[in-house]
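S2.1 Query sequence (Na+/Pi-cotransporter)
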Amino acid sequence: MLLLFAVRMVRTGIERSYGASFQRVMTGQNSMVQASLVGLSMAVVLQSSAAVALLTSGFAASGLLGFGAGLAIVLGGDLGSALIIQILSFKLDWLVPLLLAIGGWLFVKTEQKKLRQMGRILMGIAFILISLRFLREAMDPIRDSAFLPAIADYLARDYITAFLVGAALAFVMHSSVAAILMCVTLVQIGAIPFAAGLSLVLGANLGSAFIPVWLTRGMDIPARRIPMANLGLRGAWAIISLFAINLAVPADLLGGGHGGQMLVNAHLAFNATLLLLALPFCRVLKGPMESLMPKAAPAHDVEQMTKPASALDPANVGSPAQAISGLKRELLRMADLVEAMFRPTLRLYKSGEKDQIRAIQAVDVEVNECLSGIRAFVAALPVDEMTKRDAGIARDMLEYAVRLETAGDVVAKRLTVLAGDLRKTGKQFSKEGWSELQQMHETILANMQLASNVLISDDLESARLLNNEKTEVKRAERDSRKRHFRRLQTGKVQSFETSDVHLETLRAFRDFNSHIAAVATPILYQSGQLLETRLIEDMPKSVSES
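Output structure tokens follow.
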């Protein structure tokens, strides 16, 4: 359990630090080789091929990523996960005190987001190494018993059972890294023979391919095709390798003398050969997968329905609990509309097409209608029948609806106007300025998802994180403004030409994010996590007089 927790801890730290940039990196690849390298790198960073597969599926579902590039990313992620096992299989116990000291200090003593998450990552790596040492120590007395050798000998003889056990182990643990590290550790200490470990590892490769298939089972068909294709390729290669090794390789070559490092090498070779063999067919497999998993044709009445109906009916308020649930559903719908307006804003800066601008402004009209509906619904609530807490929640939701409507106005009345102005002048941002805007845009999109989670769950930790992210966006806006001024001082022509638009966009982004993050404020106030004022109280008289 410590191993699973530690792997998740590292992944969480990396996602919170760099998760907003994943979309740009993953969706900007056209070459299959480049896509596989991106998948490899991301799996090394996230320490999970399943996480890479889930991100890929999400982008494929939204139409941002094609099938071929997505499958290449997932296959590269499988190899990246194997490289992580190679790194963690080394004897690195001497690093544990150093990682804990530095990581703990960064996590506890620093407020900057990336430094704090770096502390989380370093502590997670230390916990992985500690858990592996615990595993080796726990297996020592079992190794000397009569039970484990009997099981180990049976698994060595019955390679099919060992294969199935490895697949089940990886699926149940939901982490191929943790499952294979366990198998490598058992071989290293001599608890199981190399032959049994090899069958377990091949099975773990199959089981790990089932994980993203299971986790995407509720997503749209386009999102599920890539994990299914990966399962077919990975599963077929695992089965072929299992029978080829156990039937064609002499038994004495799979016997003693091979340690955990040889097992890691075998795992690396399996994933490297799979990537080399499958990469040329990534685009070719799109047609067969579409035939096997066709997208369901929408019903006629669904095709005609352009927008979902409101969840609120002022004439039928229902109980306070039902009313609050209806308000949450409507706020989520409103948040989705605002996100749909904000997501393409940077594309407008490139194209500036009037039709796209008008489409976004049309959505703003619907956002305004949502606010009107929420205002009417809250006004119709029977205040006499509601508790003080429920009435307060309803007022907080109305306040957040106002903030969402204002966020929509930021897009419709400020950002689209700036995009139109940029199109008229034909000017372009500097490379550095455009990169800064992209990073802020990605961060805010991630914050919108977090805000929706806070709205649904009322989770205090998520609310704290969202409030911290608001501070990070303000810091990013301030830093970008300073860098922009430095570029002006150096005489960069593009920065001069787009200075007004750049600064106005930064300010609009900051304001938009503040409105979105306002959902966290009531939760933090109720738990005493926010101060009423940031001013210093009771300033000494001598200081004020000076």
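The mean pLDDT is 80. The CA atoms of residues 405 and 432 lie 31 Å apart.
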